Amino acid sequence: MKISVRVIPRAKQNLVEVQPDGSYRVRVTTAPTDGKATIAVIKLLAKFFKCSQSEISLVSGATSRNKIFEIL
């Protein structure tokens, strides 16, 4: 399944929120440098969906706040 994620880096806490339109808002405390925020998002999504990190892949938006992930 593919999901649309809006990433908010440098937040006060790590949090996954489901939006009314079916997309997700993920807040991470890490800074968006060298892909560290994307790695933190993958870790949070793995916990949220109760799957391993290797089952989550980034489809598009590597340098954008709006990302699309595919979960196997």
Descriptive keywords:
72 residues, 5 strands, 1 helix, five-stranded mixed β-sheet, Conserved Hypothetical Protein Mth637, Chain: A, single chain, alpha+beta
Describe the overall structure:
The chain is an alpha+beta fold and 72 residues long. It has a single domain, classed as YggU-like (Conserved Hypothetical Protein Mth637, Chain: A, 2-Layer Sandwich), CATH 3.30.1200. It has one helix and five strands, in the order E-E-E-H-E-E. Strands 2-3-1-5-4 form a five-stranded mixed beta sheet, covered by helices on one side. Strand 4 and strand 5 form a beta hairpin. It is globular. The model has no long low-confidence stretch (mean pLDDT 93).
Overview in brief:
This protein is an alpha+beta fold. The protein has one helix spanning 36-49; strands spanning 2-8, 15-18, 24-27, 56-60, 66-71. Helix content is 19%, strand content 36%.
> What is the straight-line distance between the termini?
7 Å
**Poorly predicted parts:** none
**Percentage of residues in strands:** 35-45%
CATH topology: Conserved Hypothetical Protein Mth637, Chain: A
Order of strands, widest sheet: 2-3-1-5-4
Total DSSP E strands: 5
DSSP summary: helix tally? 1
- Inertia-based shape: globular
For this structure, what is the CATH class? Answer: Alpha Beta
Number of domains: 1
SSE string: EEEHEE
Walk me through the topology.
Elements: E1 2-8, E2 15-18, E3 24-27, H1 36-49, E4 56-60, E5 66-71
Parallel strand pairs: 1-3
Antiparallel strand pairs: 1-5, 2-3, 4-5
